[in-house]
């Protein structure tokens, strides 16, 4: 959505056309589902969603796209098909910890912990970790990201404008404090309230570009 409102639906082809109009912009494309879920589908549904994404993403924009998923298997499969792809693991909010992504399947949401990062990193070298903003703390997981040059992007599902939300303001302020402590790291915020967040960041005198 845009500013908390529903955005118009775009086909992937339309998204690519629009994306090309903003050559200085990067995009986060979240891959839904799990490999286990796709394997249960009938053969006529092949190729897989990952194969189709790689096929229909022109080479001239691939380096500006970050592919993310709650499913480690999805981003692992993408990296196998396109080794140059930039991939990110999505980490869940506390209330979703270790619950299954889809009912009847085994792939689970993961918390932002060093143990989970180490396990994922053995399989796929992450470019970024997309962390639910309230769960990001100065812990061993963050240090693992620092030591392995993993970009931190926080995501938030704020129900109202963060400028009128004390909790949201404090969460953004936390990002500022972490950036001050770890200037060698990159921190970004994924949000529907981009303009509001920019104003808050200016108030905090923080440049996250």
Strand arrangement in the largest pleated sheet: 1-2-3-4-5-6
Portion in strands: 5-15%
Using only C-alpha atoms, the radius of gyration works out to 17 Å
Helix content: 25-40%
Which stretches are poorly predicted, pLDDT < 50 over at least 5 residues?
1-5
What tags apply to this protein structure?
single chain; 209 residues; alpha/beta; 6 strands; disordered N terminus
Structure, explained:
With 209 residues, the protein is an alpha/beta fold. The chain contains 9 helices and 6 strands; from the N terminus they run αβαααβαβαβαβαβα. It has helices at 12-20, 35-39, 49-55, 59-62, 72-81, 114-123, 140-147, 166-181, 194-203; strands at 27-30, 65-69, 86-91, 128-132, 151-155, 187-190. A 6-stranded parallel sheet has the order 1-2-3-4-5-6. The radius of gyration is 17 Å and the shape is globular. The protein starts with 11 loop residues before the first helix and ends in a 6-residue tail after the last helix.
């Amino acid at each position: 959505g845009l500013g908390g409102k529903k955005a118009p639906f775009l086909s992937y082809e339309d998204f690519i056309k629009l994306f090309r109009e903003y050559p200085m912009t990067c995009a986060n494309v979240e891959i839904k589902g799990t490999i286990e879920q796709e394997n249960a589908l009938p053969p006529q549904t092949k190729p897989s969603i990952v194969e189709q994404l790689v096929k229909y993403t022109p080479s001239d924009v691939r380096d500006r796209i970050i592919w993310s998923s709650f499913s480690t298997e999805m981003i692992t499969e993408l990296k196998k098909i396109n080794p140059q792809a930039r991939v990110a693991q999505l980490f869940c909010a506390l209330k979703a910890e270790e619950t299954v992504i889809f009912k009847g399947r085994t792939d689970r949401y993961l918390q932002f912990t060093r143990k989970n990062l180490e396990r994922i990193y053995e399989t796929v070298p992450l470019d970024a970790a997309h962390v639910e903003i309230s769960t990001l703390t100065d812990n061993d997981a963050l240090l693992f990201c620092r030591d392995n040059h993993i970009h931190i992007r926080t995501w938030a599902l704020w129900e109202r404008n963060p400028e009128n939300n004390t909790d949201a303001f404090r969460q953004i302020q936390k990002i500022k404090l972490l950036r001050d402590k770890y200037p060698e790291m990159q921190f970004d915020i994924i949000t529907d309230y981009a303009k509001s967040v920019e104003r808050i960041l200016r108030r905090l005198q923080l440049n996250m570009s």
